[in-house]
Amino acid sequence: xxxxxxxxxxxxxxxxxxxxxxxxxxxxxxxxxxxxxxxxxxxxxxxxxxxxxxxxxxxxxxxxxxxxxxxxxxxxxxxxxxxxxxxxxxxxxxxxxxxxxxxxxxxxxxxxxxxxxxxxxxxxxxxxxxxxxxxxxxxxxxxxxxxxxxxxxxxxxxxxxxxxxxxxxxxxxxxxxxxxxxxxxxxxxxxxxxxxxxxxxxxxxxxxxxxxxxxxxxxxxxxxxxxxxxxxxxxxxxxxxxxxxxxxxxxxxxxxxxxxxxxxxxxxxxxxxxxxxxxxxxxxxxxxxxxxxxxxxxxxxxxxxxxxxxxxxxxxxxxxxxxxxxxxxxxxxxxxxxxxxxxxxxxxxxxxxxxxxxxxxxxxxxxxxxxxxxxxxxxxxxxxxxxxxxxxxxxxxxxxxxxxxxxxxxxxxxxxxxxxxxxxxxxxxxxxxxxxxxxxxxxxxxxxxxxxxxxxxxxxxxxxxxxxxxxxxxxxxxxxxxxxxxxxxxxxxxxxxxxxxxxxxxxxxxxxxxxxxxxxxxxxxxxxxxxxxxxxxxxxxxxxxxxxxxxxxxxxxxxxxxxxxxxxxxxxxxxxxxxxxxxxxxxxxxxxxxxxxxxx
Length: 600
Hints:
Largest sheet: none
Low-confidence stretches: none
Order of helices and strands: HHHHHHHHHHH
């Protein structure tokens, strides 16, 4: 930055700050004093006069700020700046970053002198009342927050034009040395300034109106004017805040775009003391690391490409030697493979024979188990049939006893029938006797009436006895018939048991014969089993011997195969090394082309 630009920047900052003062502070202050102090028109003109005189008189403070800033910025002229040490350069940059915060002291001094001086000039023309004097005391609460926030943002915007110059942009700073005024603090103080002005002005007017301390005339016009000036203050503060944030954000966004296109040649300027400004330090550190890594990668890729060519040249002779060794190993491996195949075939036949004999042994064992089970079942069956024969004989004896008892019952039934017939005959005789008695009683007349009654009852008894005798005789006849049928059935059953006994005896004889045959089969199976076991042992010995021969030949084949594989592997390895060197060389070239995307 040359002298003309420095002078222009100092003028722009000074005029901008004073315009903010003239636009935001002075009109609001004058309006508040006039309204809150209930000044008359003549006194209002005197208030304006006093404010104008104080404003021009206080310009000595902006002049001092102008000269000090100009002196500081002259150190950033390239010829002078490059002659300074790194610490001096960093101190200049740090001072510029702190300037927006230090600038607040200038406006505090300016207004701490200006407000009392304006009151002093105004009150030279008349003696003020308490109501006219009090607004000057409250005025700092109304004005200072708005002026402080607006001066801070404008100073930061103007100073950022210096911080983005090539001399200061890439100058590194330690994060702990940079003051921090975070976004949260910026928003908080901006909102506080707006609310402070609104609450102070309207609160004082409402309190004065309620307490009758002053009588405000044309309250509607007053409120409209105050609202208009407050709106202007809010608009200006918001614009400055957004512009400061936008300027910093645009710088970050432009740098991100450059990074996306591979441009590592520039860093992000630190133009603010908020989180974005402090984030620029981390981003610059990242860019510096990427730039360093890119330089190392470019250098190493060139070395890799050169070394790959050397290795590829040396591996060509080794490849030829490995190919000759692989050919010899393959011939030896083919002969061993033929011998190994013959031994494996013999081993396979021995194993198959062993499996067959083992399977036959298992079948004979199963057959032996089955015959033993059959023999046991025969013995059990023989025992059960003997018991059945004895029980059949017992049943046959019981049936013969039942048959004798049934004959006795039949004889008793026949005797009972004879007795019942005798009772029937007696009943007939009783009937005849009762008839004769009735006749004789009739002949006797009245003297025989009682006898006639007795004769009648005897006649009835005889009839009942005769009737019962007939029923008993029928029942006895049926019992006799049933007894005969039962005797016949028992006789048939006795014959059946006799046949069953004969059959059981025959079965017992057959089971004895079967048991003897199964015993003979067991002896035969044991002999077969012993012979098969001997055959199995012989087959196992043959299998073991052939397996040992096969193992020996396989180990020899494996050894030769290992040599062959080792030779082929070395050959392949050498070829892979050759290919890898070629690929490595290509990758080094590609890596160099890729890394050339970044512009250091």
